TrEMBL record:
Organism: Marinibactrum halimedae
Keyword Membrane: yes
Alphabetical keyword list: Membrane, Transmembrane, Transmembrane helix
Keyword Transmembrane: yes
Name used for this protein in its record: TMhelix containing protein
Domain of life per record: Bacteria
Residue stretches spanning the membrane: 98-120, 132-156
Amino acid sequence: MAGWKEIVRKIAPTIGTALGGPMAGTATKFIADKLLGNPNANDSEIEEAILTASPDQLAKLKELDHQFKLDMKKLDIDLYELEYKDRDSARKLFEVNIWPQIVLSSIFVLGYFSVLFFLIKHPDSLSNSNPNLMGVFSTILGVLTAAIPQILNFWFGSSLGSKEKTKGLNVVAGNNKK
């Protein structure tokens, strides 16, 4: 089941964009005020309202997206530019010094495979000496396994694709940054 923020992103893309960036608090308060009539509603109240919303309420959310866009325009706030700047600072940091990412990624991956190798090579040594220790190692392995795709995405996935897209846009715009 999709989370409430994902539903908002699909129905109201402008508000959804704001929820994922530096204007998240503003977008949340806007939804709480306009959809629930309570600007002080918390995230769980908003989540419940979105997940149990009727088609009419979801249609109202779509209308509110247009109103939110107009309100942001009146304030001279470009949400997409804010989102771009938020990610651009991380890209610029990556261009300046890549070694921290290389070192941390290497340590993490080596640690992951060390734990995996130990558990495969000595499965009985942990469970015989202390059954709780096997549970701890299994939990650590699960957490490490869940983080591996993030590292792969950083090096080979969306971050790399975003960097290449930015280079292409700069070339098209005539900035010739490579």
